Amino acid sequence: AKQAEAPLSVLTLVAYHTHRSLAVLSNTRLAWAASLPTTAPIAMAVANFRSSENQRRGIIVTLEDGGRISCLYLGTEPLEGATRTLSVRRQVEVDRTEETAALLRQIRSMEKNDADAADLEREVTSDLRLLTKIRMSAEVPTRELANAIGVSDPDEERACAVLILTMEAPSDGGVHDIAVTVRCDHPVAVDPPGIVVNQVATGMVSELQFRFFIVSPTTISNANAAVVASYTSSSGYPNSVIKDVRLPLPLFVIPATPEKEAACKVTFESSLPCANLNELFNDVRREKDVSHNSTGFEFPCGSLVSVLASRSSKRYRIQSNSFPALWLIMDELKSRLKAHFEHLGKSLKLSVRQDLPLREYYTLIDNHFTKRQALSECMSLLEQRAVEFRMLQKRLLLRIKEKTPTSLG
Fold this sequence. Notes:
Helix content is 27%, strand content 34%. It has helices at 88-112, 114-125, 143-149, 277-280, 326-343, 358-401, and strands at residues 11-16, 21-26, 29-35, 43-50, 55-63, 69-73, 129-139, 158-168, 175-183, 188-191, 194-200, 205-214, 224-233, 238-246, 254-256, 264-270, 294-298, 304-309, 315-320, 350-351.
């Protein structure tokens, strides 16, 4: 009897991206499965490699999306000979040795000339000198700044802090290509944000002006601004100077009538008798204020902060209905009290004996978490509505293409 021929078998290679595995299918039956050493490939091929010594058949060559090519072997019999690898590591070690030797030669050549090394150190450490002065005024923002920050009434005068920056070149040489950048946190905006000066020669002084405005009625998070000056020295070495500037309090608050009661309170205990608050905050007070023991400040967001000084005890109480609004006035009161008593030649010690306001702190965390949850729900709802809108668009397109359209309902 004639022997029946064996059916044809088609081998198929399938790579899975989720499990980084490779499957060999014989027709529709799984014949072999193996794990891939790296990510799943984007292209595969079966190759046979021949040499004068032996022959390797059934090598699977894979190409990854990063351009890496791998040769994989599936089988139960071990290879007769070890595959030769390229001496990449040895070449890298040779390159590193040559680079290290070149750096050592350069260091030794610089150490031989002590005069040049001293000049280099003096050149690197020489800094451009920055002097700052701030004055308050009421000005109208420029059209460019008004359009950038979205001011509703661009012709309205606003409180403005003018920073006058004076640059002096070092005595050992002038500087050129000076890029001055001012950085501040929202809601403070600066105009202009940066200025480029071509050159400042030795003995010359250059003055720049920057204007700060409050652009939105939100709580102040940072009252400092950073001035960064990047320049190139006369010898061609790049350098930079950073100077922090404290913005004046009248930029952030206006004088207001103090309140006797508030929800959030912090008490400072002083080692010296209480100072006159009107003299302490003479730049933020109304002419009709006659009380020396109380003063008030109002932020653009509407929060009111009151400072009360005790007549009998050495205590200051800072209070407000808004907990985030307290920090700026507390920090300003502390710095002004220390400067006031240092001018009188006295040493001041301030302390806070009350517990940390954890309740207000946890309330802020809960409010923030609630808003984040509401934002997440809005994003999910928007995504759901977008999917429904795309489905409706698809149905409309299908109805438009039909010769006899029907109702969508």
